[in-house]
Amino acid sequence: xxxxxxxxxxxxxxxxxxxxxxxxxxxxxxxxxxxxxxxxxxxxxxxxxxxxxxxxxxxxxxxxxxxxxxxxxxxxxxxxxxxxxxxxxxxxxxxxxxxxxxxxxxxxxxxxxxxxxxxxxxxxxxxxxxxxxxxxxxxxxxxxxxxxxxxxxxxxxxxxxxxxxxxxxxxxxxxxxxxxxxxxxxxxxxxxxxxxxxxxxxxxxxxxxxxxxxxxxxxxxxxxxxxxxxxxxxxxxxxxxxxxxxxxxxxxxxxxxxxxxxxxxxxxxxxxxxxxxxxxxxxxxxxxxxxxxxxxxxxxxxxxxxxxxxxxxxxxxxxxxxxxxxxxxxxxxxxxxxxxxxxxxxxxxxxxxxxxxxxxxxxxxxxxxxxxxxxxxxxxxxxxxxxxxxxxxxxxxxxxxxxxxxxxxxxxxxxxxxxxxxxxxxxxxxxxxxxxxxxxxxxxxxxxxxxxxxxxxxxxxxxxxxxxxxxxxxxxxxxxxxxxxxxxxxxxxxxxxxxxxxxxxxxxxxxxxxxxxxxxxxxxxxxxxxxxxxxxxxxxxxxxxxxxxxxxxxxxxxxxxxxxx
Length: 565
Hints:
By secondary structure, the chain is α/β, with parallel strands linked by helices.
């Protein structure tokens, strides 16, 4: 059916060029707003009416006649009618719709996947400070980033997943100070551990129990592994630098465990500290100064970011000689560009919105060939967690929030992924733990997975060789329920393309729920394992193709497709 659609589009382009030379470049099919109106809709008649100085309805009649004269339309189109001022509705023959079943079964896991386009893409996501366990907000970012990577992989991109560790800065000092105090036997509530939120010093401490765990491991001279590096504590509670290095390594290992539980893997971990040790930060600042894009005022070095659309100029280097946080970000993105990543997507929380303009301004001011609008950003809101009807705000382990591992342990990896991807990234989301563990149709991930498992049980009951279904006679699939299901299968590749272009993995969840509903309706409408062998095998081929698309879509989201439930 996908091949047939391309042939029909080529025919439409030919017919449009006959009416108005060059119009064929805009040949397109739309989905009718009402399914009963047809399978494809064409609005070109209304668009051509003005340049042709003709009535849209008359243009529609001319276009209809031109299409009906084409052999490809005579073969695959059952009817073409004109509605309203000039809408053209096309109804395909059952044979045209049936082709999608064969296409899905022949392609298998590759259905919907485009050939390589030879282009490289980096997606940077999670990138949490190595000072705390990953919270549910990080979980939403991990699900988003991983799904966007998978979406772009289906579109032929060579995708690189990167985690940027902010292992430099004030927050690392806060981690080290908190761990050292715990190692010396102090705890939150002691006189040396301020808890007054109005007291600025209170921000210099982390209160979660995980800090005590780090301190105990440090005193025990434990060895921890973070990525491909190992670090062993010396146990000396007075050795602040050793405590700092061990605490960072310990929490990087904890975050690795969180990501393993969530089945998220990265190709590379990039350390912020390396930007300083490699001289990239100083080189970036020197380049901006040499380009005349900075000035000094009030003892600070400023970037002329207003020259590039920012609402005000930004401080780069403070009076004490330290850099503001967006400066290493500019250096980091120059490094991305130099590594050959001409397209970059950053997944970040909405609290990072203010950094977009200044990072892009710094990249333009550096004048290294980076295009405007680089990198792309996908911003997401935080997540509320509700359990037993009440919002859960804290975790004993983390001290102030629910961790990603908490959520996985309460529900499942599949439920967390599907739920966190089921809304647009920039919309508020409430994660209902009780709903996520229910085994009924109200639980969206269960509903979709159950459709796949239900098909598997039908195929198991049949007991035949599913590989033989790719070549069966599909002519019995001419009922409204079967044709509706086939049309939905045919929408899968275009849905993937649109979801990738729009950074919208939630579109995949919507599609899968719609496909699951269509299958459940089909199952209720028609028996599959009937006595008539030809009818039975045709229906088995259709449901096998449906299972394949459900499997493929769930794989994009990083969710399993169980055979039994």
